[in-house]
Amino acid sequence: MKIIRTPEAMQKHALDLKRTGRSIGGVPTMGFLHEGHVSLMRLARAQCDVLVVSIFVNPTQFGPNEDLKTYPRDFSRDESLCEQAGVDLLFYPEPTAMYAADASSWIDEASLSGGLCGATRPGHFRGVCTVVAKLFNLMQLDIAVFGEKDAQQLRIIERMVRDLNFPVNILRGPIVREPDGLAMSSRNKYLSAEQREAALCLRRSLDNVEEQFAAGERNTAVLRQTVVDWIASVPGAELDYIEVVDDRSLAAVETIESDTLVALAVKFGAVRLIDNAVLCRSP
Amino acid sequence: MKIIRTPEAMQKHALDLKRTGRSIGGVPTMGFLHEGHVSLMRLARAQCDVLVVSIFVNPTQFGPNEDLKTYPRDFSRDESLCEQAGVDLLFYPEPTAMYAADASSWIDEASLSGGLCGATRPGHFRGVCTVVAKLFNLMQLDIAVFGEKDAQQLRIIERMVRDLNFPVNILRGPIVREPDGLAMSSRNKYLSAEQREAALCLRRSLDNVEEQFAAGERNTAVLRQTVVDWIASVPGAELDYIEVVDDRSLAAVETIESDTLVALAVKFGAVRLIDNAVLCRSP
Predict the structure, then answer these.
(1) B50 to chain A: which residues are within 8 Å by CB?
(2) Is A283 domain-assigned?
(3) What is the DSSP string of B2-58?
(4) Chain B residue closest to A140 (CA)?
(5) What share of chain B is helix, strand, coil (3-state, %, to 5)?
(6) In terms of CB atoms within 10 Å, which of A20, A214, A280, B196 comes out highest?
(7) Residue B78 falls within a domain, yes or no?
(8) CA-based nearest residue in chain A for residue B99
(9) How many interchain CB pairs under 8 A, A with B?
(10) What's the pLDDT at A65?
(11) How many Cβ atoms from other residues are within 10 Å of residue A67's Cβ?
(12) Are A100 and B21 inside 8 Å of each other by CB?
């Protein structure tokens, strides 16, 4: 496995590979890798000649009061995990190399980005879109895999790829969960033992929504209230949002008539976790 | 010369060329081609294996009161000119194929775009950046040539390429002028005989600025006033702006100490023309 530290070297290497007809698959990450990331690497590995993983804690997608400085990092562990997963190239740039001091070009997705996580994290998806476009260009990806845990991010990236005609095939990687149902996240390590237990409320309240949906409930106000009540009953859990939206437009839905995304974010002290489920009209 | 009408076919063809190691040079245009465009094609032709020209009157870079509908079009003449210039591929998409009805991803350059043409054409450079990025992705360009007549556009595109890491080498094509000095433009055809004569004021007032600069004048207020007075003396000419700015940051300059861009826009009835000159500190 080759480790590349500069954007220039990454792009040159990738362009050389492309010119010889090799296909490149990639998994952009912020590091502190877990089994969720590894599952994305496996998905990409099966469909490309060369597998590239990037590890970059992107400063432009963190708000001023968010956890950029404390975001967990462990490069040597990440390196081992990538090696084991059959990664060919590990792109690990310095933040200062990725953004010029006078950087001024940004990608805004103006339709899907306003609600859900975008409502409480202004500027977040502008940072995500911009860095993902940069990574597409640097790593020259034919295929890129993103996890379904970040449901809104995934849909925004798919939209950006369509709108800006990036020649990248986006694959969706299913959510990987701990045995008790908690969605894997680099931020789970922040949780105290009590918070770790409380954090099960995300998946369990979604289970409850899915059960009600299966039983015929189509009124989203009822489904949302279920989650509001559930989270309110959990000590130490503070609901950031619960939204029930159209799975394509991410517009609010009153009565479920087509594929619908149920997404929530819950805070446990300073730790904010997300999870989601898709309610399919015709399963 | 092959003519390609859909974005999908264009991208597939370009990706196939790239995989066989061919380099692609391109000239994005809005058609109604003139000798200025042809000079850009010659520049690209000399440095690539495959030369692509796009003809697309991009709706997103026109304001609601601008000349999208009346912008001159003559495809069969453009086709002949491209054929004569040795163009391999002519990309000529339908507007509806280039933008989805719910397109929502846009590229904003936030530093260089505010002044000059950006001040009187809000949203113009967002449209330009977005369509240029789309064309880069569709035509898979290694080299792209843009004309120096659109000085601000050129600098914004160079900035976007740097900031978003597009693997495209931008070449600057010198301004091509009519024998009497008028910069070539597709919009020149709108001019009446009187306006055509009056339009010489752009180049002549810039000549005058260059003469003053050569004689040692470094006060930009003095240089600007020269142009304001010159244009005011020309019947039928209405100054849109005259700016004297740093050639890299496009920030206003009071005393010239480094390379400086002098750019102006002048209206003749409904026709708006631009021109510019760079004052080099060390020629």
Answers:
(1) none
(2) no
(3) EEE-SHHHHHHHHHHHHHTT--EEEEEE-SS--HHHHHHHHHHHTT-SEEEEEE---
(4) B167
(5) 40, 25, 35
(6) B196
(7) yes
(8) A163
(9) 94
(10) 87
(11) 15
(12) no
* pTM: predicted TM-score of the whole model, two decimal places: 0.96
Together in a domain, B148 and B246: no
Do B165 and A129 lie within an 8 Å CB cutoff?
A: no
Q: For the domain that residue B48 is a member of, what is the CATH number?
A: 3.40.50.620
CA dihedral (B246, B249, B252, B257) in degrees, to 10, reads: -30
Fill in the DSSP letter of residue A275.
E
Residue A259 has pLDDT above 90, yes or no: yes
Question: What integer pLDDT is reported at residue A95 of this predicted model?
Answer: 85
Per-residue pLDDT reduced to its tens digit, B160-180: 999 999 999 999 999 999 999
Q: Are residues B256 and B141 in the same domain?
A: no
A181's tokens: 């149902």
Count the domains in chain A.
2
Residues A198-232 pLDDT 10s: 999 999 999 999 999 999 999 999 999 999 999 99
Mean pLDDT of B139-145: 98
Choose among B18, B19, B105: nearest Cβ to A160. Answer: B105
How close does chain A come to B109, measured CA to CA in Å? 4
Q: Is B138 on the interface with A (CB under 8 A)?
A: yes
| Residues 6+ positions from B179 with CB-CB distance below 8 Å | none
**Range A177-201 average pLDDT:** 96
In a domain, B178, yes or no: no
User: Using 50, 70 and 90 to split pLDDT, how confident is the model at B65?
Assistant: confident
Element (H, E) at B262: strand B260-268
Burial class (CB in 10 A: 0-12, 13-18, 19+), A241: middle
Question: B222 is in which domain, residue-wise?
Answer: 186-279
State the Rg of chain B over Cα: 19
pLDDT grade for B282, boundaries at 50, 70 and 90: low
Retrieve residue B47's tokens. Answer: 């440095």
**Closest CA of chain A from B107, distance in Å:** 5
Q: What part of B 166-225 touches A (C-beta under 8 Å)?
A: 166-167
Of B123, B142, B173, the last residue of a domain is B173
Catalytic residue annotation of A: 37
Q: Chain A 35-54, CB below 8 Å of chain B: which residues?
A: none
Scan for tokens 């990806």, then name that residue. Answer: A141
Q: Does a structural domain hold residue A180?
A: no
Asked if A15 and B167 come within 8 Å (Cβ–Cβ), the reply is yes
Reported ipTM: the value is 0.95
* A101 reaches B (C-beta below 8 A): no
Judge if A211 and A163 occupy the same domain.
Answer: no
Query: Tokens 């796009």 — which residue?
Result: B54
Find chain B residues with C-beta within 8 A of A109's C-beta. Answer: 104-105
A163/B104 Cβ within 8 A: yes
